[in-house]
Design goal:
367 residues; alpha+beta; FAD/NAD(P)-binding domain; D-Amino Acid Oxidase, Chain A, domain 2; 2 domains; eight-stranded mixed beta sheet; globular; disordered C terminus
Length: 367
């Protein structure tokens, strides 16, 4: 039997939160094992970073590489939400400048490269490794490889599989799904703002991407549609026709479907608790924000960095660092929940529609 390798922290996942935690820990000279699924779930196109995320990229040491990678500048947001007349939120006066529509595959590779360059041991698995507690923390095995770690970071995304194996429930706010489509246009647009448009059975998000691609996502509840019909080009086009601003924008840029639309989960959810003896959770494994917040990727990076700092402090003898991290996530989620409910409450023009009734009842119940 192979001897067990010793690490300070084992990070379970391969997304931005996982790599942000690994980078933060390696910069503090801790021994880090990253266990990443060999076949990760596909990531829908359309991720963006707000201007405030630039300081996170600098903290991770990837800002210069990020600037060189050809991500598309985002100069603002437009929203037809409370009324059918869109409001424009421009980044021109933002102290950090514009945001970005990112190429997610390129972005993820940069973070992996940075973690590996700092000395993180990045390995892959076909099935979740067997991990059990021991006197020093945790011991695990995948294939012939055996290891021990004092802490485990659950960065397994929406599955939260490690935390759930510790008996922690994942609390889901709704049954929201996203119908995701990628489109291709002849060139890059002059207008790179993202667009949100509310309609009776949900809302649309539309934004340009690098290389002339576009992302169009329809957020709704799973029980309100015939999924088979909407996964066809004709069904998707018929649905899009009910969103005049989104339809017009895509038509004006000559954007055409580059593949069949697909449904993906998009529910707002969180763990009942964010940490326990010898472990903590980051990113979507800890809590998944409603895409309406537009902060999912920023939250993933921030939570990974903060988790790394909390674990570094704990390894240095600070017995309350991890609990402070968990308390900070609780506070952040409470602020997010109030913001989310307030935003859905603004869309009173669709108050009689099931999608909006469900969220506005939540808002009333929480007030």
């Amino acid at each position: 039997m192979n001897p067990a390798e010793c690490f300070d922290v084992a990070v379970l996942g391969r997304g931005p939160a996982a790599m942000a935690a690994a980078i933060s820990l390696r910069r503090a000279a801790h021994r880090v094992l990253v266990l990443a699924p060999a076949r990760p779930a596909p990531t829908p196109p359309g991720d963006s970073l707000a201007p405030d995320a630039k300081h996170l990229l600098r903290r991770l040491g990837v800002w210069q590489a990020f600037e060189a990678d050809g991500h598309l500048a985002c100069h603002g947001n437009r929203s037809a939400w409370a009324t059918s007349t869109p409001r424009h939120f421009d980044f021109i006066h933002h102290p950090q400048g514009h945001g970005f529509h990112i190429d997610r595959a390129v972005f993820d590779r940069r973070l992996v490269e940075r973690a590996r360059a700092l000395g993180a041991d990045i390995d892959s698995f076909d099935a979740p490794p067997a991990i059990v507690p021991d006197a020093a923390g945790w011991q695990g095995q995948h294939g012939p490889r055996r290891w021990q770690a004092r802490w485990v970071v659950d960065a397994s995304g929406q599955a939260s599989w490690f935390a759930r194996h510790q008996g922690v429930a994942r609390l889901q706010d709704d049954a929201q799904v996203a119908l995701v489509a990628t489109l291709q246009a002849p060139g890059l647009p002059a207008d790179t703002a993202s667009l949100i448009e509310a309609v009776p059975r949900g809302w649309w998000y539309c934004a340009p991407l690098p290389q002339g691609r576009w992302s169009a996502m329809f957020f709704t509840d799973a029980d309100l549609h015939d999924h088979r019909a909407l996964r066809t080009a004709a069904g998707w086009q018929a649905l899009l026709a009910g969103a005049p601003l989104t339809w017009t924008r895509l038509q004006q840029h000559g954007a055409v479907l580059a593949g069949a639309p697909a449904f993906t989960p998009a529910a707002s959810a969180r763990l009942a608790r964010f940490a326990g003896p010898g472990w903590l959770a980051v990113g979507d494994a800890a809590m998944r924000y409603d895409p309406l917040s537009a902060h999912g990727l920023t939250v993933a990076l921030h939570s990974g960095i903060e988790a790394g700092q909390a674990l570094s402090a704990s390894l240095a003898g600070d017995g309350t660092a991890v609990q402070r991290y968990a308390d900070a996530l609780d506070h952040a989620h409470a602020l997010y929940a109030r913001m989310r409910l307030g935003l859905y409450r603004e869309a009173v023009r669709f108050a009689g529609q099931p999608y909006w009734q469900r969220r506005q009842r939540e808002a009333v119940a929480s007030s």
